[in-house]
Structure formats: C-alpha cells, structure tokens
Amino acid sequence: MHRRRRIRNMTSQNPVIFIPGIFGSIGHKIIPGTGKMRFGPSKYVYEPVMVNFEEMGYVRGKTVFVCFYNWRNSNEVSAREYLIPTLENVKKITGAKKVDIVAHSMGGLVARSYIQSEDYKYDINKLILAGTPNAGASSSYYFCAGGKLPYDEVNNNFFLKALWEGFVWYMKKSSKGGGMRKLKNFFPSATELLPCKHFGDYIFKDDDNKDLKFIPINDMAVQNEFLNELNDNKKILNRKKIKIYQMIGYGFETDEYICIEETDGKIWKDGKPIYSVKTVYGDGRVTCDSCKTITGKYVLVTSSHTDLLKDNKNVLAGMLNRQIVQKKSKVDKDNKICNLLINNAKRTRIRINGQEIVVDKRYRNDLDSINVEKIGYNNYWVIICVNNKDDLKIKVDPLTRKCNISVLSNNTASKLDIQDVNIAQYKWLTI
Known about the structure:
Layout: H1 2-10, E1 16-19, H2 43-55, E2 64-66, H3 75-94, E3 99-104, H4 106-115, E4 124-130, H5 140-146, H6 151-155, H7 158-175, H8 179-186, E5 203-207, E6 211-215, H9 225-232, H10 235-239, E7 243-249, E8 254-261, E9 272-279, H11 288-291, E10 297-301, H12 308-311, H13 313-319, E11 335-343, E12 345-352, E13 355-359, E14 370-375, E15 379-387, E16 392-398, E17 404-409, E18 416-419, E19 429-430
Parallel strand pairs: 1-2, 1-3, 3-4, 4-7, 5-8, 7-10
Antiparallel strand pairs: 5-6, 8-9, 11-15, 11-17, 12-13, 12-16, 14-15, 16-19, 17-18
Helix pairs in contact: 3-4
C-alpha cells in the first residue's frame, strides 16, 4: 500500500505546456495567409517531441499543450500575448493550479520573461529548458548586425538551414525593399538572441595573428538590453521557488568568438565577420556556458540543438518524474529532406515512388511527408521529408518565364538554384 502511494507521488500529475523555439510556430500573424497557429515546417523537429510526451502518458489537448507564439516579436510580448493566455486556458481545462513548462531554445526566454515579470501568478512548478541561450548566442551577430546567415552553423544542421532559408526568403519578399533596416524591423526578437554582458566579450580584431584585441561588449553598437536586464534579475527565478532543469547539448562545434574587420559602419557597425572561433562545448547553436547562466540542475547530452528533446526522451521523462508507458512506431531516421522555395508557379508536381501529388492553391496539408506554406498568390514554400530510399522527383509548372525555383536538399552537396524557367524545356528533377 505504502509502496503504491510512493510511486504515485513520484509521478508528476501537472499538465505540461511545451514552448517551441524560433521558427517553431507558423500562422497568419507571422506569415499572412498561412492560417491558424501550428508547427508548420518545424513539425519535422517538434512532432517527434510531442510523440515523446505521448509515450510518457500525456494526452494532447488534455494534459500536454503547445504554446505557439509569434517569434518575430519581443519575448516579453510573446509571454504577455501568448504564454499567459495559454496558461490560463490550460488551468481552466485541467483544473490544475500549477503547470510544468518544457521549452526549447527561444521558448525558454519567453518562459523566463513571464516568470521574472510582475505578471507572474506562481502557477509554474517546473521549468525545463533545452538549449536555451540564457546569455545569448554569438552566431546571432551575423544576422542582427549584417543580415547574413551564420553559414557554418546552418550548414552543419540541414533542418536549421532549411528553416533559415525559408523564413528569410519570406521576410525579404515581404520587406519590399528598404534593405536591412526593414528586415530587422520585421524580426525584432533576433536582437534578443545576441550575447549579453553576462556572455562576455566575443568580438575581436586579429592583426596578422600577433595581437588579438577584444572589443568590450559594453562598447558595442548593438546591445541585447533584454537579456542584460533579464540576467541582472535572474535571482528572481530562485525566489519564485520554481524547480529548474536544463538539457544542455555538447560535442558540436559552436561559435564562441568572432573575428571582425572594420568597415564603413553602414551595416556592420561593430565590424564585418572574417572567421569564428568555435568550441565543442555546445550544441552547434548555443554554448554550454550560455545555458548555465542561470542556476538549476542540468544534464549534458551529446545532441545537436534541434534534436535535444527529440533524442533524449528518457532524460526528459526523468525531469518530469514520468515513466515511458508506451512506445510508438518511429519514423526512419534515414530521411531525405527537400526544401523548395518557388516564385510565380501555377503548381508543383511531386512524385514519390511514382505516386504524384499536385501542390497548388487548393492543396491542403493532408500528408505527413509534405508541408506546404502558400506565400501570396503564386509563391510556395514546400518541405518534403521521405525515406532516403524513396524515389523523389519534382516538376514545377511556371506561371511565367520569370518563375524562380530554389531547391535545397540534404541529398545534394550544395543548394541548387533554377531560374528563368522555360516552360517547354523544363523537365522532372530527381532529388
């Protein structure tokens, strides 16, 4: 009798709210015309995480919920406009007074924004962070300072590369000129991922490898005031009596310092990157030290940034005091992924082992293997995920001769761009 009671008490009964990271939500408020909030292109990263929750006995919509949010906005805005309403709704549905939060990457900053604010209602029992850049990530400098992608980083993680390419493609199309200023205004939360003063100096000049001169982070033109303030007041987390756990990835080359050269200051105000100095104490995106900026229990795992929660189900179950109660069939990890960015097209034809799927304005996301986001009238962002052994072919029917297609596949050595398509000459492309 006592044994059963003890086991029952060890099992967490709190509902869980899962907060995905940057690019983990898509919907009309993020990209007009894309409908209700959902994982969208990131479902290949986060759906396996939801399956992991189900294997622990959680039920979607009853005991585990997703807090989708507009990651373009400030994290403080996301906490106020998305997390707080989600919390209230979950407490109403479940009758629970407290919930456990599991957050990936930027999602952890959204959670911290709420907990460390005056709006906090002492309704969180556990805060579990996976790969959260609590002191920022130096690779964010590439985009925030110059509008460039951190190519070493994205090339080492295909899915991250696909999401970056897709969302930046959309942002550039939506900005309609105006260059970096409009692009950065479109994506203000990017600055909140920059290293803060608690990260330390990370930009330096290299004078023929003789003298390395670091630029004091407090003297830099672009500051992360959000994380500066959040970490100046990080002791609030301990006073709120929340149990904090972290899943921290290591073993993947991660940008730690960036060597720069001086420019005219129009774009790269603090200097243009030449190369980066990497550390293996990171998950490919966030360093271990950045995660450890806040106190709490942590577990080091050898997983990349996007795979932290997907690959470490048992670690997550332990943090939640849950047991794996059922095992569901898993998708073959040996997947072929294709990212298509298509402008001015009537339709796209996709053949998987001879079966043809037509993607046009009437297409609905009915297949797990294909995700389509319609951008405007005749532009499509398509991600295809199939078994590596499957025969995959694509054919785009151009609307005009100005049809532009960008194909990115983990089955090719580099990005393949096809432009100014001739309707008569264009043939099926094997991926």
